[in-house]
Amino acid sequence: MPLILIPLALLALPLIEIGVFIWVGGEIGVWPTLALVILSIVVGAALLKRQTLSTLRAAQAEARAGRLPERQIVHGAMIALAGILLILPGFVTDVFGLLLFLPPVRDFVWHRLRSRIVVVGPTGARTAPYRQPGPEVIDLTGGEFRRRDGVDGSPWTRLDGPGDDPDERGPRTLH
After folding, report:
1. Which of 29, 72, 85, 127 is most exposed by smallest CB count within 10 Å?
2. What pTM does this model have?
């Protein structure tokens, strides 16, 4: 979609919503129209709460199974967008919001956007199966460990900063 269409769509949406309000108000009356708007706000908030909790549980189950919950994350974002669209007053946004609450529609959108989205986990971009990070333990006995001070020529063990003069006993620093 060319970038110029985004501002045009944002300008056109309120005009379309006003036109639909006038049409629906003329068909069923002002009070039923307002009741539908209030009902959509209440239903949107309730669906948002219910769907968000179930998506969060599914994402946690995926993470516990050792997989990156990318589908659940994207579905959660779409559910949040659907709830916002339902809470916004207007019938056009309500239609799009209700459509996004349907799992088959979310799956369709996910499959269309999947190649353009990179989900990043705690270890970086997903390139291999997700593994939950855990503590890395190195188990050594006293005989397996040996300390060598500056013997291997490593720059991390070379001491040549201020206070390294043997005649001058100050703090030792690594450079």
Report:
1. 127
2. 0.60
